[in-house]
Amino acid sequence: MDKLAVGNLIKSRRKEKKCTQEELCSGICSIASLSRIENGKAGNREKSYIPSLFERLGMSADSLNEIISEDDYSVRQMIRRANQANCFGDREEAWRILAETRTRINNDGHKISLANEQRLLTIETELSRRDGKITVEDEQCRLENALRMTAVNYTPDNLPAYMTNMEHQILGHIAITYYELEQSETAIRIYYHVKNFLETYVDDKMYSAGQLTHLCYNLSKMLGLAGRYDECISVCHDGLDWHKYTGLEETYPLTMYNCAWSLARRNKEGDLEEAKKLAYGSLELANVMSKYIRVSPTLAGHIQKLIDEYLS
């Protein structure tokens, strides 16, 4: 994709979304740099801003590898490898890759984008928390500072309207820290904001659906435990629909359980019948899934307790 085509796409998309230049580039680059990009005059430095600008406009940046600097692309690939190691439970390998990444940046003079710096800080913070090296308060502070690298005006009461993929992912992590610090209303409000952004703004529906499967599980859990059963059930139904859309299974039985849990406690007409169907379906699915992917070891026990107490 040539520079003029990229610039025209960004400009037309920005106007379509009624997004000002200032709103789009805030924390990413100057208005002057954005103007050069939109006019097809992006230099090497401006090229590094384009993936984040794409994502803020709800577009996928995957097709832009050819206009990202070679250094930035190699760092991004290393971060992905570290994330994969972390997802498979190999934190030692994740730390090794991250240390190698930092060494390459510092020793070889690699220049990386703010988005990649946010990626590095986020996974380092997550691993540090899992290893017990920092508290949840430390984690929250680090994540909020990472978000402010681009969303400079962020506060829990001033959430960014336009977000890159990295920004909304960090915001989701921040919501969890607020929940862990017993500030559930703030956590729920942040999650609703991210949910609305993913559902209404992002063009890449397969990407947003994948994010929404996990988000709806976490949000429904918070709503259920807060006694907001109607909202929990509604969010669970959204989550189950997104699971069906993507074919992803990891949080499917968990979301089914959350829905059954709130239905049983709401106990309106027909709720117990639906709850029973979901509970047994969740138990069956969890048993099947446990043979080939990681499933919460306590899920079966929670489902059986729900059945014994409310649905037997």
Characterization of the model:
This protein is mostly helical. Helices cover 71% and strands 0% of the residues. It is built from 16 helices and no strands. The chain has helices at 3-16, 21-25, 31-38, 44-47, 50-56, 70-87, 91-108, 114-130, 136-148, 165-180, 184-200, 205-225, 229-246, 252-266, 271-289, 299-311. Helix 6 packs parallel to helix 8 (114-130), helix 11 runs antiparallel to helix 12 and helix 13 packs antiparallel against helix 14 (252-266). It is globular, with a radius of gyration of 21 Å.
Quick description:
The chain has helices spanning 3-16, 21-25, 31-38, 44-47, 50-56, 70-87, 91-108, 114-130, 136-148, 165-180, 184-200, 205-225, 229-246, 252-266, 271-289, 299-311.
How are the SSEs placed, and which strands pair?
Layout: H1 3-16, H2 21-25, H3 31-38, H4 44-47, H5 50-56, H6 70-87, H7 91-108, H8 114-130, H9 136-148, H10 165-180, H11 184-200, H12 205-225, H13 229-246, H14 252-266, H15 271-289, H16 299-311
Helix pairs in contact: 6-7, 6-8, 8-9, 9-10, 10-11, 11-12, 12-13, 12-14, 13-14, 14-15, 14-16, 15-16
Number of strands: 0
The gyration radius over C-alpha positions equals 21 Å
Q: Report low-confidence residues grouped into runs of 5 or more.
A: none
Structure classification: mainly alpha
Q: Largest sheet, if any? A: none
State the shape: globular
Summarize the amount of helix as a percent range. over 70%
Q: How would you spell out the order of helices and strands?
A: HHHHHHHHHHHHHHHH
Give the CA-CA distance, first to last residue: 61 Å
Number of helices: 16
**Mean pLDDT, all residues:** 91
Q: What is the beta-strand fraction?
A: under 5%
